[in-house]
Automatic annotation (TrEMBL):
The gene is ffh. The keyword Iron does not apply. It comes from Sphingopyxis terrae subsp. ummariensis. Involved in targeting and insertion of nascent membrane proteins into the cytoplasmic membrane. Binds to the hydrophobic signal sequence of the ribosome-nascent chain (RNC) as it emerges from the ribosomes. The SRP-RNC complex is then targeted to the cytoplasmic membrane where it interacts with the SRP receptor FtsY. Interaction with FtsY leads to the transfer of the RNC complex to the Sec translocase for insertion into the membrane, the hydrolysis of GTP by both Ffh and FtsY, and the dissociation of the SRP-FtsY complex into the individual components. Part of the signal recognition particle protein translocation system, which is composed of SRP and FtsY. SRP is a ribonucleoprotein composed of Ffh and a 4.5S RNA molecule. HAMAP family: SRP54. GO terms for cellular component: plasma membrane; ribosome; signal recognition particle. Residues 269-282 form the SRP54-type proteins GTP-binding domain. It is a peripheral membrane protein. This is Signal recognition particle protein.
Length: 444
């Protein structure tokens, strides 16, 4: 799911992030590509339009284009908008009513309704210790009621005994009575499906809904059916008071448009995603996690968030300018190391910046961990301003003084000097690669 969309967007944003500065035209061009990528993923046109408009408006703002990392800021805006499009917060079942809480399952035949009924029942039983009763109201398909009974015995959840010849509303009434008398917490009603939406089906569901007054009415749709799934959802939304949607077959290789359009079209949250034929193949639908998966860069998003909190933009900009000129003294190194510390240390950063993992492994080998950063700061604090500006004047005698002053050793002082030297060399290389643009390329 989402693979090709994820690849397409990865290309678009890879290009954006590879550049130091962005113009409004760059952002608009990228948004045109985002638009095409979403349409190709089968996202409904009105949804794509409002998404792209919203993101473009935010992304061409001066705060973004003038920032130090405009490309990443744009990605962050897209990620936020995508999360919002998917529903922002995960929405769980709301069963806080006088028991039995009725969960009514609706949807087309073959959407995975019966399987999902059993999956949710299993989840309520295992995770929330609820006593669940299931009943099939499908009197059209001969084996439907038996199918649910078989699933029930597999997951050890009770099903309503079958009485031949009863109509859906009658079965619903009998199920409610049984659930009340026998002290069930939750009653799951698996309604009949059809191949297409028709009025008779809608009438039947409305009648059942009036009888059972469900706490939750969940529409089950097959995500593999793409745009059709969205249309089906729209029809159901108009006729039945839905409280949520379950998207099945999210384990398949659908392009993902159904998932992305569903919230906007129905106005209802996607509560669960079906992720397999097995009865534990059900996940709570987490918008931010799905958005992260689509963008393939959820970690960069949290990195930008953290950087924005900890680094003064001007401080970073001034540093970037100095680096670009190849001027980099021990004061700069000190500022840099402190920034790293404020951003959660080397470990946190390494997980977030592509390519930094290797650097971190090397640092770990040379014994550079977060504690060492504290020592380094003390060492540089014991130097005179002159020494920090011109490290080459630090001779053996000065090294001993610095080590004593900072409570460290001459070896550790040497390490700081070596690190500074290595970073200056790296800076010079970056300058040769084209200054800030080169730095951008190096960072991803
Ligand atoms: P119903 O007619 O809507 O009740 O559909 P069923 O529950 O009988 O499901 C139809 C088929 O889809 C069955 O073979 C299920 O095993 C399969 N199925 C249901 N949900 C999922 C899912 O999330 N992933 C996959 N791969 N298969 C599913």
């Amino acid at each position: 799911m989402f693979d090709s969309l994820s690849n397409r967007l990865g290309d678009v944003f890879g290009k954006l992030r590879g550049r130091g500065a962005l113009t409004e035209a760059d952002v608009r061009a990228a948004m045109r590509e985002v638009r095409i990528a979403l349409l190709e993923a089968d996202v409904a046109l009105p949804v794509v339009r409002s998404f792209v408009d919203q993101v473009t408006e935010l992304a061409v703002g001066q705060n973004v284009l003038r920032s130090v990392t405009p490309g990443q800021q744009v990605v962050k805006i897209v990620s936020d908008a995508l999360t919002e499009m998917l529903g922002s917060e995960a929405a769980e079942l709301d069963l806080a009513v006088t028991p039995p809480a009725v969960v009514m399952m609706v949807g087309l035949q073959g959407s995975g309704k019966t399987t999902t009924t059993a999956k949710i029942a299993k989840r309520l039983k295992d995770k929330e210790r609820k006593k669940v009763l299931m009943a099939s109201l499908d009197v059209n398909r001969p084996a439907a009621q038996e199918q649910l009974a078989v699933l029930g015995s597999q997951i050890d959840v009770a099903t309503l005994p079958i009485i031949a010849g009863q109509q859906p509303v009658e079965i619903a009434q009998r199920a409610m009575q049984a659930a009340k008398l026998q002290g069930f917490d939750v009653l799951m009603l698996d309604t009949a499906g059809r191949l297409h939406v028709d009025q008779q089906l809608m009438d039947e569901m409305q009648a059942v809904s009036r009888t059972a007054n469900p706490a939750e009415t969940l529409l089950v749709v097959d995500s593999l059916t793409g745009q059709d799934a969205v249309q089906v959802a729209q029809r159901f939304t108009e006729q039945v008071p839905l409280t949520g949607v379950v998207l099945t077959r999210m384990d398949g290789d659908a392009r993902g448009g159904a998932a992305l359009s569903m919230r906007a079209v129905t106005g209802k949250p996607i509560k669960f995603a079906g992720t397999g034929e097995k009865l534990d193949g059900l996940e709570v639908f987490q918008p931010s996690r799905i958005a992260g998966r689509i963008l393939g860069m959820g970690d960069v998003v949290s990195l930008v968030e953290r950087a924005a909190e900890t680094i003064q933009a001007e401080e970073a900009e001034a540093m970037a300018k100095k680096m670009a000129k190849g001027q980099f003294d021990l004061d700069d190194l000190r500022t840099q190391l402190n920034q790293m510390r404020r951003m959660g240390g080397l470990g946190a950063l390494a997980g977030m910046i592509p390519g930094l993992k290797k650097a971190q492994a090397a640092m770990a080998q040379s014994g550079t961990d977060d504690k060492v950063l504290v020592h380094f700061d003390a060492i540089m604090g014991s130097m005179t301003p002159k020494e920090r500006a011109k490290p080459e004047i630090i001779n053996a005698k000065r090294k001993i003084r610095i080590a004593n002053g900072s409570g460290t050793t001459v070896q550790q002082v040497n390490k700081v000097l070596k690190m500074h030297q290595e970073m200056s060399t790296a800076m010079k290389k970056i300058r040769k690669m084209g200054g800030l643009k080169g730095l951008g390329a190096l960072l991803g």
